[in-house]
Protein: MvdD-like pre-ATP grasp domain-containing protein
Organism: Streptomyces canarius
Amino acid sequence: MASTVLVVTALEDVTADRVIAALNEREVPVARVDPADIGPALVFGARIGARAPAWTGRLVTGSREVELGEVAAVYHRRPTPYATRFEYLPTQQRDFAAAEARHGLGGILNHLHGARYVNHPGAVTAADFKPAQLQQAAQLGLAIPPTLVTNDAEQARKFAAEHGPVIYKTFRGLPRDEDGHTGAI
């Protein structure tokens, strides 16, 4: 019976560290993987076929070796973007390599037969758009404030006049600057 928990996250994720510590205390087999380590620090081989319709194979990190069929659960939490691994490449090559890694390794890690997922990447993507989140909340009967999403300055002025003080909220936050720092609006 599958028993390993695969923790898919960045190396410096303190929340994942706590989850891993709790799993270790319970003597649950656990392996931490950051997909952006793909290359010498993360090697994998996976097979599938008509007679074996679930992914089988192995995932090897610097400290762990995991049989894909032994993965019972996947805790997916903020892994490093694949492109980080390939930053040294020219843009087209970087984008190609990152997409291949994401669709290859990511396609396998996101579809392990019988594994339970916490924050499945597909669910994260589906919930990633604030307009969709607001619509879902409203459909579930939750109270949401009057909201306008627009790029029309006149509509924004009319909305503000109708509703009094307004709050602007970004959809994604600010991207990192050249030094890797983020800001706030």
Notes: Residues 129-185 form one domain.
